[in-house]
What we know:
Largest sheet: 7 strands, mixed
Radius of gyration: 22 Å
CATH architecture of the domain at 198-339: Sandwich
Strand order of the largest sheet: 11-10-9-13-18-15-16
Structural class: mainly beta
Number of strands: 31
Distance between the termini: 38 Å
Number of helices: 4
CATH topology of the domain at 198-339: Immunoglobulin-like
Amino acid sequence: MHRRSFLSGMLLAGVGGFSLKSLAASMSHTMLADGSPMPLLDPALLASGTDQGGMSMLANESSQPRLFKATLTAKAVRVPLLKDGPTEFWTYNGSLPGPLIDVMEGDTVEITLHNQLSQPTSIHWHGLPVPPSQDGNPQQAIAPGQKITYRFTLPEGSAGTYWYHPHPHEFTAEQASRGLAGGFIVRAKQDPLAGVPERLLILSDLKLDHMGQIAPNNSDDWMNGREGQFVLTNAQNKPTVHFDAGGRERWRIWNANSARYLRLQLPGSQLALIGTDGGLLEHPITGLTEHVLAPGQRIELIVDAGKRRDQGKLIAAVYARGKMGDVAPDKPLDILTVDFSRVATGQVVSLPARLATIKDLGRPVAQKRVVFSEKMTMTNGQHGMQFLVNGKEYDMHRIDLTSRVDEVELWEIVNQSDMDHPFHLHGTQFQVQSREMDGVVKTESYLAWHDTINLKSGETVRIKTVQHWPGIRMFHCHILEHEAVGMMGQLEVV
């Protein structure tokens, strides 16, 4: 399919498992009476530039050693963003973003979720090694007014930067866009960078209509994935951060956007990549000027002030991911301002040459092939779009692939669509082996732990992975709108 033949005004139709009634209701609220698109809020009206505040922490209710016990309540709150009136968000414990969960590897986690929303919901512990029964799969959503308790133990070696968000089928995209997401850090008992000051940056998208309310999705959102006027940092618009006086910081960055890719740059500074989704790399990768973070991914960076005593901008540069339809061209976005003026003159301690040991998963004993694709449809005179996995739309009652507990597998993931798609596999971390484009295969240059990996249009990525618990696991595109309308499958581990 040729991208430019796809009209931006079309409606999705005939998408299995997705509620066309709810989509139609959503679409009707994105148009004015004369049929023109509903205007969005002028970005200049949202306050920006304030000093970045602290992040809310989820309190441990347990006095028992190595047990983290807490409660999360999903509920609507009204936040005074604008002078004209409050904006309704959906939150965990009234916090934007959701309160940070900060635990140690080896800890047992017990969290009770209370659903005070008008929709069913669940919590998916994105990237964490938890049993399928505790992972908030679509089959495990709880109704409004109900509660569920998740309990799991984090194994040794699971230190990393994770997050949590809803995963009820058909409702995930809306609940995430309204604010339901939070960070989850698993700390190592022996951390080679424990003395480096940390900065936590959860980057999330916000789309407000002209009345200052969270806008419903329009046809472009369902087609390309939702992007708003704002990229918030810990729910703040373009805040200012004051760099540590010691001259070096460790940044943990979450891409909690529904669909926005973040081509992160800090002009005037070089960056060192030290960690991916599932923890530290073996060695720092230094001298970087940018890093692309796909939706759902996390990274750890070392940022040095060097001789800087000025102010710099962390920006999201334009990333061409192959949007379809007659959409406006992307522009660079300022994420935050970094104030280096308080840095003291002196020499920072050098980075360790070795950060961690990552063992190769070993020889695969089975293989899988996953193909992402898209297809135009016509139903009752209306154009539609299907996002498919192995030629099929998601069906909660169908098993798409089967694996065995503790068997190492080689997965070949192929993107036959016209746009980038981030692939996410539940319940485990995997190791990228190679990438292939136009018949040219490139071996991955470093070993790392991932649970989400981007595939460019026409690209094939090969990974090694292993599942350690029996049950059903999800694999899907982490553009949440694509997941919702069919780009998801089910893996049964036996």
